Amino acid sequence: MPYELAIIGAGNMAEAIARGLIDGRVFQPGQMIAADVSPQRRELFSRELGIKTVEIPSKASVDARRILLSVKPQNMKDVLADLNSAMRDDALVISIAAGISSRFIEQNLAPRPCRVIRTMPNTPMLVGEGMVAMAPGSRATPADMDDARRIFQPAATVIDVTEDKLDAVTALSGSGPAYFFYLVEQMIRAGTEMGLTDSEARTLAITTASGAAKMLATSPDSPQELRRKVTSPKGTTHEAITHMEQHSLAQIMIDAIKAAQRRSRELGG
Ligand SMILES: NC(=O)c1ccc[n+]([C@@H]2O[C@H](COP(=O)([O-])OP(=O)(O)OC[C@H]3O[C@@H](n4cnc5c(N)ncnc54)[C@H](OP(=O)(O)O)[C@@H]3O)[C@@H](O)[C@H]2O)c1
């Protein structure tokens, strides 16, 4: 029997995806195979997840219906050369690697007529709350997109975009968790500067962040409206927001996210 999924690069993101697939009963462990150069990662996949593992990518891809490319971008060229030596022509290739275009993957798997889907996930997938944007390569069909969506849906919200938007996606949701972590870091610092203990400041800031995130996700109100509801005229929140606006924080954030988009374009070549 062919494997339903060959996971190439059994790292952190691949682990989140594999756990989602098993917990969500999309595939059983026996329907997947994973390749990784690291003995520790192979051991984790086989012992904790029950997934068969191999060292060499082509040993995993040789009889797999779908191939998940989850190695770091710098390893991609070598991995594709190896996969091209042994994979099914009809395998659907799904990549999560940042900055690697579907065209690059198609070219490195030529002359096979590979169907490729490029995606951009983010790290909250590790806790089953990820965001994934998917873009079809030149040969991927709508049915392939539906098929790939099933891979990510257990651990993420999935949207379809065109590939030219993936640099913006990378800047917004790929890097986005770090912006929130950074904000919480500064809230903790402010708390300790105001005389709270580190532990008090951490509890206050982190609980506030997760409560606010839940409200954002569940309330019918827009972020702007939610903010308005905690901002009474001339009150404490108003004072803080006015200070942020006087120092152009909104523009700084927009410029920073656009800088991330530019960097994503540069890295993609
Ligand atoms: N982390 C994020 O926030 C994020 C967000 C969006 C997209 N991504 C993308 O997701 C991909 C994986 O990221 P990650 O954070 O999960 O990386 P990771 O934990 O480093 O996983 C990659 C794994 O692939 C292994 N590997 C390297 N070369 C290999 C080869 N030739 N054959 C087989 N396995 C090989 C690595 O082993 P060694 O460590 O021993 O080299 C490592 O275990 C990257 O392409 C990244 O761009 C990540």
Overview of the molecule:
The chain is 53% helix and 14% strand. With 269 residues, it is of the alpha/beta class. β4 (66-69), α4 and β5 (92-95) form a beta-alpha-beta unit. The protein is elongated and about 65 Å long. NADP nicotinamide-adenine-dinucleotide phosphate binds next to α1 and α4.
Which class of secondary structure composition applies to the elements? alpha/beta
Largest beta-sheet details: 8 strands, mixed
So what's the overall shape? elongated
- Rg is 21 Å
Q: H/E order of the elements?
A: EHEHEHEHEHEEHEHHHHHH
The small molecules bound here are: NADP nicotinamide-adenine-dinucleotide phosphate
Question: Could you list the spans in which at least 5 consecutive residues all have pLDDT below 50?
Answer: none
Mean model confidence by pLDDT:
97
Helix fraction?
A: 40-55%
Strand percent estimate: 5-15%
N-end to C-end Cα span: 39 Å
Strand order of the largest sheet: 3-2-1-4-5-6-7-8
- Total strands: 8
Count of individual helical segments:
12
Fold blueprint:
Blueprint: E1 5-8, H1 12-23, E2 32-35, H2 39-49, E3 52-54, H3 57-61, E4 66-69, H4 76-85, E5 92-95, H5 102-109, E6 115-120, E7 130-136, H6 142-152, E8 156-160, H7 166-174, H8 176-193, H9 198-218, H10 223-229, H11 236-246, H12 249-268
Parallel strand pairs: 1-2, 1-4, 2-3, 4-5, 5-6, 7-8
Antiparallel strand pairs: 6-7
Helix pairs in contact: 7-12, 8-9
The structure holds NADP nicotinamide-adenine-dinucleotide phosphate.
NADP nicotinamide-adenine-dinucleotide phosphate (NAP) is lined by residues 8-14, 35-38, 41, 57, 70-73, 75, 78-79, 96-98, 120-123, 174.
